[in-house]
Amino acid sequence: MTRRRTLTIATFNVNGINARLSNLLAWLDYLKPDVVALQELKCEDAAFPREAIERQGYGAIWKGQRAWNGVALLARDAVPVESRRVLPGDASDRQSRYIEAAAHGIVIGGLYLPNGNPQPGPKFDDKLKWMARLHRHARTLVDLPHPAALIGDFNVIPSDLDVYDPAAWKKDALNQPEVRASYARLLEQGWTDALRSVFGSEQVFTFWDYFRQHAERDRGLRIDHLLLNPALATRLVEVGVDRWVRLEPGASDHAPVWMKIQR
Q1: How many CA atoms are closer than 13 Å to the CA of 150, on its beta-carbon side?
Q2: Average of per-residue pLDDT values in the chain
Q3: Is 218 in the active site?
Q4: Partners of 192 in the beta sheet?
Q5: Which of 195, 178, 97, 111 is nearest to 150 (CA)?
Q6: Is 153 a catalytic residue?
Q7: Quick one: pLDDT at residue 21?
Q8: Domains along the sequence of the chain with CATH
């Protein structure tokens, strides 16, 4: 057997893992990613489809939550070595939005950042507080001598380039100046936004809502991100979005986003 020269790392907001399990398994079989971060499991821990995931060749760790949220990390032919399952900084936080582990020699933080709508209001304030906590924890990862990545659904539209119609999303929490500024400050720590670093000024989306055939018309947003610390960024080879998954029957409103890195 020839060993692959690259590792494929992906993130996918499945929008209900049990409701969309066939879509997820078909995509795993197609791409065969080495590490996957999943968001919006929308199930309790006991309902996570562990056996189906293992039959596909993946070990998994997860933190579920009934009806909402829920995050997981999968590793091909391995089990992720968990380091934490909550974002530090708020002992009262009970939402399943962050999980971190080592897999295939890389520290992976998988996250599902709060949506923040409606704004202004308490939910938007909580979003900004969560981002501030993320900043503090990210600083402990960005300067690590070994590779690390923060990947997942950030619920952040970084710029007008990342939305099909900026005016239509002007009032949305994902698109507020404070949110964009917070994301920019995160990158200033030294993180590389993999999709933007490869696609440059080309428009690319990762999410399309279910209205007015937005997916078919490619009227979307870029809110799922792959951030690489300097030790990993130098190994980036390729990045992509599997939009075809979004176009499948019964699909999530997100598409998987992936990168290939040198081993």
Answers
A1: 29
A2: 97
A3: no
A4: 228
A5: 111
A6: yes
A7: 98
A8: 6-262 (3.60.10.10)
